[in-house]
Specification:
Arc Repressor Mutant, subunit A, 2 domains, 4-stranded mixed β-sheet, 3-stranded antiparallel β-sheet, 11 helices, 11 strands, globular
Length: 310
């Protein structure tokens, strides 16, 4: 039997590295399934030449995700079974495509409280020994995201950070995210149920600021264009400190009216003002937590910017 490797160094600073074609693959997973897969990918080392049967202690996964271990024990069998059934479709630049199962083997040991997962060897060219055209990010950027669509949109955005923007036709975007429901024929449902809440969460919890523009032909929405910026290290640091503190203190939000939360990241002066204010509150966690909570509440209640391309 192939060697099983116990992963003892689970850390939310581990890098997830994927070929860009894998990032843009077409598949649908729950947020838990995606997080399990990304945790598994994050254990692939730079010098690895293949993937391994990787064993995790369930408690370590729970700690990494900042969730209770009991519900995770309950949900893992269903998630692993679902992952083994999921098909990922990767489109090649020349129009060719490949389809794969993602996970080929999973095993739970009750006595040890461990779960073993094995990535399909056929996918290794998209995850192992990558030299160019790949996307990498810290695991921490996706583990706090609750929306399955936010996790996908974050990765799509990260892959185009180097050029600060990326456009998709609606059909491309729906195919990547597997938006097959009839209701998504109406763009209002895509923006209201997927784009707006996903981008709100990405902007609040990750190292990116993302905005989107609706591309139209006449009055019909035909595409979406994302504008992507990386946050300053000071903002990321304070954001991470605040998230840790919020999980402990559970501060109740107060009203906040000093900033326009929707366009704050697109305005350099407002961004600098925000950063100075946050730095001034670095030692006042209660005020900082309240501010972040109110910023998120304010953001959720404001419409996203849209534009028309004739």
């Amino acid at each position: 039997m192939e060697y099983e490797q116990l992963e003892l160094n689970l850390n939310n600073n581990n890098l997830v590295v994927q070929d860009n074609m894998f990032v843009h693959a077409s598949y649908e997973m729950t947020s838990l399934e995606q997080k399990l897969l990304l945790i598994l990918i994050s254990t692939i080392k730079k010098d690895d030449t293949k993937t391994y049967r990787t064993v995790f202690r369930v408690r370590d996964i729970a700690d990494l995700m900042n969730v209770s271990v009991e519900p995770l024990y309950r949900d893992l069998p269903k998630a692993c079974k679902s992952l083994m059934k999921k098909i990922i479709e990767i489109k090649q630049p020349n129009g060719d495509w490949e389809m794969f199962n993602i996970i080929t083997h999973a095993k739970y040991k009750k006595k040890e409280g461990s779960i073993m997962m094995k990535i399909n060897e056929e996918i290794e060219p998209y995850l192992v020994q990558l030299q160019d055209l790949f996307t990498s990010f810290r695991l921490s950027n996706v583990l706090d995201l609750s929306s399955k669509h936010a996790i996908r949109i974050y990765q799509l955005s990260k892959s185009s950070l180097f050029k600060n923007e990326v456009s998709y036709t609606l059909e491309e975007f729906k195919k990547i995210l597997k938006l097959t429901q009839k209701s998504y024929d109406r763009f209002n449902n895509i923006s209201g149920k997927i784009l707006n809440p996903s981008i709100d969460e990405i902007n609040l919890k990750t190292d990116l600021n993302v905005e989107y523009e609706v591309l139209k032909l006449g009055t019909k929405a035909v595409g979406v264009k994302f504008y992507i910026k990386k946050k300053s290290e000071n903002i990321i640091r304070l954001q991470n400190d605040s998230e840790k503190s919020v999980s402990k203190s559970k501060v109740k939000p107060n009203n906040f009216n000093n900033f326009d939360a929707r366009d704050i990241y697109s305005d350099p002066k407002k961004m600098k003002s925000l950063e100075h204010k946050l730095l001034g509150w670095d030692n006042d966690k209660l005020k900082l937590n309240s501010f972040i909570s109110d910023l998120f509440t304010e953001t959720q209640n404001k419409p996203h910017f849209t534009a028309c391309t004739q």
